Amino acid sequence: MNEETSPSHDRRDFLKTTAVVAGLTVAPGMLLYGISEAKQDDEAVSSKVRWGMLIDTSKCADGCDACVTACVTEHGLTEESTPETKAQWIRKVGLRDKQTGKVHSLPMLCQHCESPPCVDVCPTGASFKRADGIVLVDKHICIGCRYCMMACPYKARSFIHETLENQKPYSPRGKGTVESCTMCVHRVDDGKQPACVDACSKDGHKAMLFGDMNDANSDLSKKLKEVNSSVLRPDMRLNPGIRYQGL
User: Which fold has domain 9-245?
Assistant: First the structure.
């Protein structure tokens, strides 16, 4: 991107500051600032951690949508809308092997890339990646240009067309902004697992394993060393935090 169309860091800082000073909130009483850096007991987010997930497609049952339902409930994605404008932070898709014809049913969500293209194209810095690898959208400075939606190879982002009510205080949203899976950052910062992972486990399938990819002693890291896993669109070299087993 050339210099004329790419804002400087100073401009991004100015836009962030202006949004706060002007009292721009996603909804009354809701502020997104702090979610990018604050954790429980004021512990700073660290690059020593890389949150990730392994999804075993052999355990992901066709027709099961426990993870989708849990996401909708957790984040209040219940507003009435058309199929074209419905918010989908996580969705079930069928992936067919062209050679064998075998179809895998798997959850599709933001892949929380190490090099996220959504962040690269965002003109205001609204799309950003935390130090621990979680990719988020700052609704205060998102201008709804939807460049990030076009840049995402996984079609993991949605645009909010409707006026929203009864929002969750820990998951602010806003009309005219883009949104996607947050990896339930509010739960992660509280030492819990994402809602989709919990729901999959409670449903008995246990197809989703969440953890710190940088911790050699985490269950996720140990599992990744034991099994063959792959990422979607490896040709783009984005190094997603979401890995799939059995593809």
Answer: Alpha-Beta Plaits (3.30.70)
